[in-house]
Every structure is written in structure tokens, then in C-alpha cells.
Amino acid sequence: MKNRQKIPGFIAPCLWSYNIKELNLKADKELIITQVLNYGDEKRIKWLYSVYTEKDIREIVRHPRRGLWFERVLNFWEIMLKIRIPRKIREKAIFRLQPQFLSRK
């Protein structure tokens, strides 16, 4: 994290199911980065990069949380950050409305 600040109101649409006043930039870093990368526009992404280092952001993308990522968004950030996420981890990270049964192969 680069500096201490609060989450501004214009970030709230990315964190629509959370009370941004209760979120902590350090403790909730993974959630904030994931949500802003998934839902943010250019202004919100710039804010994200002003608060967190590229190393922080790369680490969150490299180790995506299960079921939180839109497939196209994760594809984009893998390309932009030049990251390769293992296939099994990537598949588990993708948000799906209908559960998919993965083979055990």
C-alpha cells in the first residue's frame, strides 16, 4: 500500500454490497483490489493504482479468490500484467451463475 487514505465515495459502486466506511485499505486489500478490477472504470482503476502498488495488484491477480472474478476481466488483467494463472486455479476463480461440475482428471 502506498499511503493512508479512506475509500472515496466514487469507489462505492465497485463495493456495492459492503459498507465502505467499515472497510480497511490494508486488511481488506484483496477484496478492494478484486472488486475494483472487476467493476471499475478508468477513474477507479487510477485510484486503485494510487493506493496500492503494482506488486500488490499483481499478487492479487496471480492468486485470485474463488468465484469472484469475471472471466473477461481476469483474462484482461492476466494479459496486462503478464501473469499466467494455472488453469485449475483460474477456473475456480471465475464467477459462474450456474455451478459447473469439473472432472477429477
Distance between the termini: 39 Å
The counted number of beta strands is 0
Average residue pLDDT: 91
What can be said about the biggest beta sheet? none
Low-confidence stretches: none
| H/E element order | HHHHH
What fraction of residues sit in β-strands?
under 5%
Q: Estimate percent helicity.
A: 40-55%
C-alpha-based Rg, rounded: 14 Å
Number of helices: 5
Label the structural class.
Answer: mainly alpha
Structure, described:
The chain has five helices and no strands. The chain has helices at residues 29-39, 42-51, 54-62, 71-80, 87-93. With 105 residues, the protein is mainly α. Helix content is 45%, strand content 0%.
Q: Which key terms come to mind for this protein?
A:
about 45% helix, about 100 residues, 5 helices
Describe what is shown at a glance.
The chain has 105 residues and is mainly α.
